[in-house]
Amino acid sequence: MPEEVWLLDEDTVASDADRAQIPPELEEYLNVFDHEKAGTLLRTKASDHAIELEEGKTPPYGPIYPLSRTELKELWAYLVDNIKKGRIRPSKSPAGAPILFVPKKDGGLRLYIDYRGLNRISVKNRYPLPLISEILDRLSGAEYFSKVDVKDAYYRIRLREGDEWKTAFRTRYGHFEYIVMPFGLSNAPATFQSYIYTALVGLVDVVCVAYLDDILVFTKDRESYAKALRQVFERLQKAELYVKPSKCTFYQKEVEFLGFIVDGSGV
């Protein structure tokens, strides 16, 4: 691999506080923590998210709901940021899902696009999500854990070319459509689970488990742990997936995963 791949501006990787959380074993994978690369648009791939519609059906358009000044400010910031990152673009689509905002746990606001009309006429992808009970059972006997959260996971998947118009949404500031896979699509979880499993093939249930954008690396001893961690980050790098240090925990004897506390004795 060309040497320049590793010559990174420290400011693009993480803050000093974040860098302090990255174990030395991952120094060669600092680009996986690069927050600027995490915002770049991927090239088209065979794994791009397709939106297949039932025969003869067209996505509906909905009303524009009134928003507060705070919500309008949040909307404008979202549009500017995601147009800049190439995730959305102006649209002339006949479709138009309505939008609203829902509160986050931290008191902020999250944009919600009501794709229920589109989802009703979408041909369903039945790729399964892993059973949480089986994931937890697989961790039995492990002593060392690292939790890895994929940053902006869905946005790392592009929409299949020609399907973008189906994701159009209406706002006070214009009509837009996604270029990447947005939240709220009925088949989005299946698409990302397939993508992450393909990226980690051969490692899942051996040194890691993955449920959508949540990955847990595990081993029974510390000696094999560094190798397992590097294997997972090598795959993330190849799949062009990125993580945020502040949402990762490394070398833990006990960790919270999928809402459960996991340690060497189990859940």
Walk me through the structure:
Residues 1-11 have low confidence and may be disordered. The protein is an alpha+beta fold and 267 residues long. The protein has helices at residues 10-13, 16-19, 69-84, 116-120, 132-138, 188-199, 225-238, and strands spanning 88-90, 99-103, 109-113, 144-149, 169-171, 174-178, 208-211, 214-219, 249-252, 254-257, 260-263. A 4-stranded antiparallel sheet has the order 7-8-4-9, with helices on both faces. A 3-stranded antiparallel sheet has the order 1-6-5, with helices on one face.
Number of helices: 7
Measured as a percent range, the helix fraction is 10-25%
Oligomer: single chain
Which CATH C-level class of the largest domain is it? Answer: Alpha Beta
Please tally the β strands and state the result: 11
Mean pLDDT: 90
Most strands sheet: 4 strands, antiparallel
CATH topology of the largest domain: Alpha-Beta Plaits
Shape: globular
Range of strand content: 15-25%
Relevant CATH superfamily of the largest domain: Reverse transcriptase/Diguanylate cyclase domain
Q: Which value, in Å, is the CA radius of gyration? A: 20 Å
- Helix-strand category: alpha+beta
The number of domains is: 2
